[in-house]
Amino acid sequence: MDLKQYIDVYQFSSSSLETGRIGSCVDFLDENFDDDLLSYDILIIGVPEGRLSIGNESCALAPDEIRSSLYGLYEGEWGLKILDLGNLRVGQTVEDTYTILEQLTAYLIGEGKVLLILGGGHDLITPIYRGHCTFGKPLNFASADAHVDFQDGDSYHSRSFLSHLLASKESMLSTYNLFGYQTYLCDPKEVHLLNQMNFNLLRLGEVNSDLNEMEPYIRGLDHFSVDLSVVKSSEAPANPYSSPNGMTAEGLCMILRYAGLSNSIKSILFSELNPRLDKNSQSVHVYAQAIWYFLEGVHLRQNDLLTEKLNNFKKFHVHSELSELVFYKSMVNDKWWVDFSEEQASDSNLLPCSSLDYIKAVNGELSTRMLKYISFK
Q: How many domains would you assign to the chain?
């Protein structure tokens, strides 16, 4: 795929940066670039498309603003090869932009790369989803968002994309996780409908009460999106739909580190940041630092999949009224899984869980996570 015909080069000069800043360690795609694209671990692309971001169209200006803050941060001890592809050339219509982003997503994740997309509106999740669908496998998607973005009807925009993903002809969405939604900002009928499906809708209070318990939900994702409205307005003011309540910037960084640690996440989208509403570039800094933690997580990824030999795992049997539960604990990184199948352990039979899920099971109680899983098996 010849990317250069679809890309506007991001003009960046690292000569003024001191050694060790991220901007001095990233490579940039330009007319002189002749390296192997597929030799890179992380590929960054800006998508300045905000035409369907209702009431927030200026989020199209965000990609370069995010870069400006990100590239001024110090690099961690990562050893990651990162390439900035520049900005996707916006099409004459939104669907034109979607088509190219879909093709680019399919190509790059098909090559085993991690794609980091700087939006733009949250509706960009749609072409990203289509790109993932190319491979014909059930998909686990997630968003951190104060709103459910599900609206029945024919209108399609950044606040209604979920209903269209569910109704799409691809129909590959297996599970959808929503982190940090605020009940008073969401239609109860829509929330009830989505809760009847194999979705995990996690209220803001549940997320904030124990961020560590969010990791099992993130572990098996294919894609993760962030809508800036999920962060409280005092910490990230650059979104017209932000609320005084929300996740903290620190909490978002923690969630993104978990996303980086996930071996299955292939793409991530940062969306709905409107630089014209930002104060002292505060929101831009929030996103830049969240990306920093995502990159650190990618660097720390470990092969923690269960194998038939079960090397580096401890196995625990717990009797319940429903079945004999088998828990597995990785001795490498302390991650937990539970198997309900009473068959040979395999990834398809396992639910990522936490030590708290295990402790509850030992005490004769099934956690909300496990009950939700059982109800849809």
A: 2
- Same domain? 206 vs 87: yes
Q: Final residue of a domain: which of 299, 321, 349?
A: 299
Rounded to 5 degrees, φ, ψ at 199 are: -120, 155
pTM for this model (two decimals): 0.94
Please tell me the predicted confidence (pLDDT) of residue 345. 54
Residue with tokens 């309540």: 245
Query: Do 369 and 225 lie in a common domain?
Result: no
> 120 and 74 in contact (C-beta within 8 Å)?
no
Element at 162 (helix H, strand E) = helix 161-167
- 3-state SS, residue 254: helix
Strands 199-203 and 173-181: parallel
Residues comprising the chain, all counted? 377
Q: Which tokens is 146 given?
A: 């104060």
126 lies in the same domain as 249: yes
Strands 199-203 and 313-319: unpaired
Same domain, yes or no, for 341 and 221? Answer: no
Give the residue from 272, 299, 326 where a domain finishes: 299
Whether residues 255 and 349 share a domain: the answer is: no
Q: How confident is the model over 318-361, as pLDDT tens digits?
A: 987 667 899 999 988 899 999 887 665 556 678 999 999 999 99
Coil, helix or strand for 173?
A: strand
Residue at token pair 């650059």: 238
- pLDDT over 90, % of the chain: 72
Question: Residue for token digits 């995010």?
Answer: 66
Rounded to whole angstroms, the Cα distance separating 141 from 148 reads: 13
Q: How confident is the model at residue 362 (pLDDT cuts 50, 70, 90)?
A: very high
